[in-house]
Amino acid sequence: MSHKPCVAGVGMIAFVKPGTSGTYIEMGASAIRQALQDANLDYNLVQQAYAGYVYGDSTSGQAALYEVGMSGVPVINVNNNCATGSSALYLARQAVESGAVECALAFGFEQMQPGALKGHWDDRPRATTHMTQSVIDELTADVSELPGALRMFGGAGREHMQKYGTRMETFAAIRAKASRHAANNPLALFRKVVTTEDVMNDQLIWPGVMTRLMACPPTCGAAAAIICSQAFARKHGLRTDVVILAQSLTTDMPVCHEAKSMIEVVGFDMAQRAAREVYENAGVDPLDIRVAELHDCFAHNELLSYEALGFCPVGGGERFVLDGDNTYGGQIVTNSSGGLLSKGHPLGATGLAQCFELTHQLRGTAQARQVECVNLALQHNLGLGGACVVTLYGRV
């Protein structure tokens, strides 16, 4: 642990609905300034910068960073779908841990449009492989009119229901839990507490499978993190109490389409392999972890993530929820921030917003959201197409 990279500073702006935010330049610059201020670090000491965003023109990262200063620092723009923010974090951590630099900045932002996610390049093949797309088309042919992401994650939830008897009410309970956590997060988009019954009675978008509240909203926002070596931190008087113990970035294996399973299509295998690698490298058991930020783009995916990350047995996700093991007083507090479901999901910023939350949990500065006795914290960020980043943080 003594040589692991430190998270010296974090920043995050409040997430808001599309059309109500500043520009991506304003949002990104604000989050960067917050991270620098949190670290008490002069921007000119940053040696590399990694900018994450999904919807934007080339070199948008430079446009945001130049608002903070034009120091000549190398800037690398990153796009890994919904795992973009944590992919930027992965590269910053890798640069520091390898000794290539002593201090790196990872930041992410998204200025999103209202409505379901959609591609912006209609004159070329989609990024989803034709083999995987054929599985999606086959297994969700009955709901071909629905948006793609809803078909994929709803289809995975339906498969879990058919295999293990999971009830729609269980997914509603996950969404209700997210609202209770977000009520204590001033940076979350939705802070209104809803009950399981409220979620079940909301607009039905897939009969028997999903209501509108079970899907995360399109969101605008930004977040950032300063990653540095412990030697650099000590030299410049920065904090060293939160470190990255292990991190893994995985992509799809053939099982994604060969299994003919929507659960595999939405990244179960990627998450499972990334988590196992992280646990092995850090020498920890998933049951040792007290708090986690999971990629709950749909309530269904949060339940699948419990199983993929080893918090409960495969097929045991519903029991995990019903026993209250996913919240305060249970086995592990999942998405203390409110998660993507309530906090919001600006694609390029999400992974770094997860880092922001877990850093404050480990520092003991999460205020009303604070989880007791936190020494380890896990982050899971998923991007279909595919990429999955699992990060384990520790308190020194």
DSSP strand (E) fraction?
15-25%
Globular, elongated, flat, extended or rod-shaped: what is the shape? globular
Helix content: 25-40%
Please identify, by name, the CATH architecture. 3-Layer(aba) Sandwich
Level-1 CATH class name? Alpha Beta
Low-confidence residue ranges = none
Query: Span between N and C termini?
Result: 8 Å
Fold and architecture overview:
- This protein has one domain (6-115, 217-395): Peroxisomal Thiolase, Chain A, domain 1, CATH 3.40.47.
- The protein is built from 15 helices and 12 strands.
- The chain has helices spanning 24-39, 60-66, 84-97, 130-139, 148-164, 168-182, 196-200, 230-235, 255-258, 262-265, 268-282, 299-308, 317-322, 339-343, 347-363, and strands at 6-12, 48-52, 75-78, 103-110, 204-206, 210-211, 221-228, 242-250, 291-293, 333-334, 376-383, 387-395.
- GO terms for molecular function: acetyl-CoA C-acyltransferase activity; lipid binding.
- Its main location: other.
- It is found in: Peroxisome.
Features:
transferase; single chain; 17% strand; 396 residues; acetyl-CoA C-acyltransferase activity; alpha/beta; Thiolase_C_2; peroxisome; 5-stranded mixed β-sheet; Peroxisomal Thiolase, Chain A, domain 1
SSE layout and pairings?
Layout: E1 6-12, H1 24-39, E2 48-52, H2 60-66, E3 75-78, H3 84-97, E4 103-110, H4 130-139, H5 148-164, H6 168-182, H7 196-200, E5 204-206, E6 210-211, E7 221-228, H8 230-235, E8 242-250, H9 255-258, H10 262-265, H11 268-282, E9 291-293, H12 299-308, H13 317-322, E10 333-334, H14 339-343, H15 347-363, E11 376-383, E12 387-395
Parallel strand pairs: 2-3, 2-4, 9-10, 9-11
Antiparallel strand pairs: 1-7, 4-7, 5-6, 8-12, 11-12
